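Researcher: Let's do a round of design. I'm pasting the structure tokens now; please hold your answer until I've finished.
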């Protein structure tokens, strides 16, 4: 899994309401690293995270 896919998965899982420690365990990363990736996308604001996921999905569809 490359870094971009991992970041997208982390942001998606956080937006779904999963706690940082759970996401960290699922992607085999430190909780602090997961928190920093989420924070860059708007964590702990779940609405902001969902908008980040939605925007990323739209960018991916537009590029295809």
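Researcher: That's everything. Go ahead.
Model: Designed sequence:
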């Amino acid at each position: 899994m490359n870094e971009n896919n991992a970041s997208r998965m982390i942001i998606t899982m956080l937006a779904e309401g999963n706690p940082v420690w759970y996401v960290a365990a699922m992607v085999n990363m430190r909780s602090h690293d997961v928190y920093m990736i989420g924070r860059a996308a708007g964590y702990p604001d779940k609405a902001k995270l969902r908008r980040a996921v939605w925007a990323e999905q739209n960018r991916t569809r537009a590029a295809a």
